[in-house]
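Action item from last week, closing it out:
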Amino acid sequence: MRPARTVDVLLNQWLSSLIARGMSQYTIDGYRHDVSVFLAGFSNSLSPDSNAHDAEPDLLLPLQNLSVSDLSRVTPADLRSWMAKLRVDGLGKASVSRALSALKTFYSYAADTHGIKADPVRAARGPRAPKPLPRPLAPADAMLVLESTELTTEKDWIALRDTAALTVLYGCGLRISEGLSLKGKDAPLGKTLRITGKGGKERQVPVLEQAREAVEAYRAVCPFTLEADKPLFRGARGGALNPRVLRGTMMQVRLMLGLPDDATPHALRHSFATHLMEAGGDLRSIQTLLGHASLSTTQRYTAVDEERLLSVYEKAHPSATGALRE
């Protein structure tokens, strides 16, 4: 590939490389727009005849006046000004972070192919977007998911495998990585499981009878030998079950049942925590079961409605009885 002299040529080369990597057209169009907005504004800021703050970048004009070497002149102030303008123009924090990610990808390509200095862009930090609150399934929907999983495939052992895996995630409040890290030696499941979570921290979680039965039903028909030190949940060819497969099964189930897009395997963990809280569990105990280092994280998982919180408060606090109702 011939070295590009102007940024418009380099931009097209970069976009072509993304196409070659199999990136979706939707993502490529977003990257093109985000980077073009920055480059057009940056080009204006370098022009002595333009007012960088008042000029409105024209994305329809090719960036022929901006040489590739000019890209090395970008400063942290340029990046802050660009992100600030995006916010003024109405973009949310997540969208600004996405635009910065696109620019970083472009600058990495420019650095690799043309030796452009990319340090200021690589070091830039986007605004912190608030983490979305988890949306647990209703108890009835969670049970319906487990009952409907077997309908996603005609292969009995795979249907029982996915049912067992999802039942363990919901019944024990496990992360998908924790559930799929179970070994053959962990079965048959006992009344408790010792789980190694994030940071290598161990915790012990109780196991529901329904989860034990689901795992035994799967083990009885699994066509592979479940060695003690090998994964308990196996893929179609006998290797470790890929998390993407389980997410795909959950997607089929939620489409079948008309559940929202955020009904994922991880939502079962949220549901575990919330349903325990609704049944009277305390946050500290649920924190231990989930393996959270911070109680604030556990609070985000337990989406208990206001009526439930008022009820707990009024029962627990000796001076609160009836006060919030008056």
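Closing note: Residues 50-62, 320-326 have pLDDT under 50 and may be disordered.
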